[in-house]
Amino acid sequence: MAVDVSELVEQARQGRPRAVARLISLVEGASPQLRDVMAALAPLTGNAYVVGLTGSPGVGKSTSTSALVSAYRRIGKRVGVLAVDPSSPFSGGALLGDRVRMSEHASDPGVYIRSMATRGHLGGLAWAAPQAIRVLDAAGCDVVLVETVGVGQSEVEIASQADTSVVLLAPGMGDGIQAAKAGILEIGDLYVVNKADRDGADATARELNHMLSLGDARGPGEWRPPIVKCVAARGEGIDEVVEALEKHRAWMEERGVLQERRTQRAAREVETIAVTTLRERIGDLHGDRRLGALAERIVGGTLDPYAAADELVAGLTES
Amino acid sequence: MAVDVSELVEQARQGRPRAVARLISLVEGASPQLRDVMAALAPLTGNAYVVGLTGSPGVGKSTSTSALVSAYRRIGKRVGVLAVDPSSPFSGGALLGDRVRMSEHASDPGVYIRSMATRGHLGGLAWAAPQAIRVLDAAGCDVVLVETVGVGQSEVEIASQADTSVVLLAPGMGDGIQAAKAGILEIGDLYVVNKADRDGADATARELNHMLSLGDARGPGEWRPPIVKCVAARGEGIDEVVEALEKHRAWMEERGVLQERRTQRAAREVETIAVTTLRERIGDLHGDRRLGALAERIVGGTLDPYAAADELVAGLTES
Asked: Which Gene3D superfamilies is this protein grouped with (chains A, B) (predicted)?
């Protein structure tokens, strides 16, 4: 069914949550209208400040996200939340319990909450998340919080899609910082020790500070990731987190780092789409006589696989 | 350093193990001469019967492979062994202990043994293994045994690169067949219960037979994977394994299945190389002004990522 894309975009701009939801569905489902939607969104994007939140299960990511939403709402910002669970095959499935905790924002027209599961998606997280972020951006969100379960590679991917990356920790999570994979220590622009009213919060912050300083080879003009303590469940320290975020944003804007990060992000996005497009074109050749004929010549020993691939690539580029 | 490829291929054909080793290094390392090597090999390939062996750690894969090598040597066949460990970043690293057990074949000029670790390889297993198989094939191996550690996706990949896939099991491996991931039950052309002198071997074979029959929707003319018991460490039952292999090979040849499998395999190989080539071409644009300029226009809101990807793809195809 054809959708009036510009009408939908207009409705999303006016703050209609169903239009936003519809647009995200169109972009994450790779619908035939994906390209129309993306073209319509392009001139409306670039306003949102994208904050990535990651951390191991149990650190209180969802509670922290919810507290951040409240804090940004208090200063009049429209907020989008994209909750990404790379391990869940179903949208909202594994995160449903968490989403319920965010129900206080459900009736707020200034907040959009969207869960996204990406397993099995063509191109994975790197492909689907930036498009949903673009919808939220174009819909007028001032801040987009991208919350993801910390599961190795994907958290790094998500971090690479944010303007600012926040790594959440909590005291008493196994052996604390050690449990956080080393990769996490490289991606944070800001570290938040949540559940700071618990025993061991100071030790966690100290240990983290120590580990960050070990790898610290930054020059005098570079950003040193601050460590902020909070108790998200009670809203304590959240204003300080927002303050640290805004400080990082201002720092990036001053030095052109924000523009630079966004340009790099866009470049990666284009690459991912281009590779996916080319893969699809090759996939379309399945059952096609061309690929079959090349394969038969290889089996017959009259062609080698590299020469065949060259012919295939040349063939793609003609079409 | 340039290598005389045709000379190297000629030496490999004459049975010089160092020439074979050198050729495999050239193809797995993506050397500049890769294409020359593949072109030189093409007319010499198609003779080897490729047997994939997979199974969980502890089932005795290496011992079984070694016993199969002995059995094929007794009937005068030249044998190549490719031991793939997708989890090891180092060639031969994790498998060194196993390779020592195969040292009885080390001085046999009719046997080539090669370990391959593929983590981090561009395109992974699907890219590197078929090329090494081609070298062994061209070097005159009648049989190539591809042994891989059973670790999910990669074993399926390896199976898809063999003419015949052998799944190894052993009694008392946790809960036996249940432990074997369901995927394994779909890829075997032949199931071997090794360590058949141990308690529970009959139960394992029965349980396997039951599970195979559950998923059995084969027509009357189709191949029903046999179950063979052996004690590889003492060489018992190995001739029966070879017999079952040869039966499967004859069945495939009779019905054109061998040709069909090889053609499909070649098609996948071409696809993988083509995608890798295109990815590399895109990668070459990093730092290139074209991708940077597109990304800047996206950030500026004058272009959307899909339109940018189209331009990128169009640009690739011109070059």
From this structure: P-loop containing nucleotide triphosphate hydrolases
What distance in Å separates the CA atoms of residue B75 and residue A281, rounded to the nearest whole number? 47
CB contact under 8 A, A263 and B130: no
φ, ψ of residue A254 in degrees (nearest 5): -55, -40
Residues in a beta bridge with A50: A144
CB contact under 8 A, B44 and A312: no
Render pLDDT for A256-293 as a digit per residue (tens, 0 to 9): 999 999 998 888 888 888 877 777 777 676 556 788 88
Would you kindly state where each structural domain of chain B is located, as residue ranges?
45-255, 271-318
Nearest to A274 among B259, B264, B282 (CB): B282
Residue pLDDT, tens place only, B31-72: 778 888 889 999 999 999 999 998 877 888 889 999 999 999
Distance from CA of A210 to the nearest CA of B (A): 30
The pLDDT score that the predictor gives to residue A154 is 56
* Parts of chain A with a pLDDT under 50: 88-98, 101, 119-123, 175-176, 179, 319
Q: Do A306 and B38 touch (CB under 8 A)?
A: yes
Minimal C-alpha gap between A50 and chain B (Å): 13
Question: Which ipTM value was assigned to this complex?
Answer: 0.77
Q: Please check whether the domain covering A46-255 is classified as CATH 3.40.50.300.
A: yes
| B191-221 burial code (b ≥16 CB/10 A, e <16) | bbbbbbeeebbeebbebbeebbeeeeeeeee
CB contact under 8 A, A46 and B291: no
B45-255 in CATH: which number?
3.40.50.300
